[in-house]
Amino acid sequence: MGKRILVLGSSFGGFNAAMRLRKLLGGAHEITVISADPLFTFIPSLPWVALGWREPSAIQHPVAARLWSAGIRHTQDTITRLDPAACRAIGKNGVYEYDYLVAATGSELDFAAAPGLEPDGGQRHALFTVEQALAVRGALERLCARGGGSIVLGNVQGASCLGPVYEMAFLIDTMLRRKKLRGKFLISLFTNEPFAGHFGVGGFGAMRRMLEDEFADRDIECITNARLAGVSPNHVELEGGRRLACDFSLITPAFYGSHAYMGEEGLANPRGFLLADEYLANPRYPNIYAVGVSLAIPPKEATPVPVGVPKTGQMTEVMAMRAAHNIAADIQGGSKARGIDFSVICIADAGDTAFLAGASPLQPPRNRLIHKKGALFHYMKEAFERYYMAHVRYGLPIPEISL
User: What is the model's pTM?
Assistant: First the structure.
């Protein structure tokens, strides 16, 4: 009898898990993807959308048709509660039963962490959706038309998605220099990390010095070990009393996993991130697999200000492939793959140059590290975006990246 496999989410984790499951299982089992968003969005390119260097149509594609073409059902819905004992996912529009479930729902943003943190479309901004990116674009255009001001970017206490703030600081600097306006703006960056480039994983070797030099060369103030106290119309205030004048702010909040996973003992931690064993399966409910941001990964060491462990798109994709492999092994027999022994590689763009960072494994001590800077990596990131969107649209193969 065929199994019912439910995949929650259709971004990097959900899309790739569903496609790999169909490839591994053939047509004997039912695969359904449920996602709130009908579009796949290449999230790493949102900073380029915010700068006006990319239009949304270049980084988005309707996901349903692509899934249906592979024999995968798609339903647009928002899951509000998981009932793991009954093997049911409850959504706003329906109830969905399953034999196996892949949780790849991404994150919920904790804008309640500090007063005034939630984006207002005027001075206060975040960068996690196309709509938010377009709001950032409009605000920066207005600021440039004004001819000067103060720009503050930051990562709040507990934040884990730390790289985009670095990217946006460098990209805004590059954009202003091209417009011959850099001398009219102050740019400050604060972060919960103990040092620049810690990224929740202890840093990437000499990347710390590379970033510190870059901030110095670009006249960008970088404040580490920072806790956000609140955001007002004209200032960003840090705990300890430091106030940063602000005409534009872009601040990354901490994440929840999903409120849908909370309240079930043994399923998730208090912030809604799913607990999982070395094979990405939940120990209490082993037919539930966690992928990407949905997975609870505790920091290896405590920091003065809480810093979360990142889950990049590449990491999420690797987890999706391994979760799919392990579900297929559960159904068909065979050995399972450890899901948490993965490497990470990412490119942080600065417009006129870029930084390549990689580590194997993710957290130290490591077998290998990569940290390089150069304009070549900017073009590599552009090329990868185009290839990945072709993968989503047309099915071009994406190999698993290893270091």
Answer: 0.96
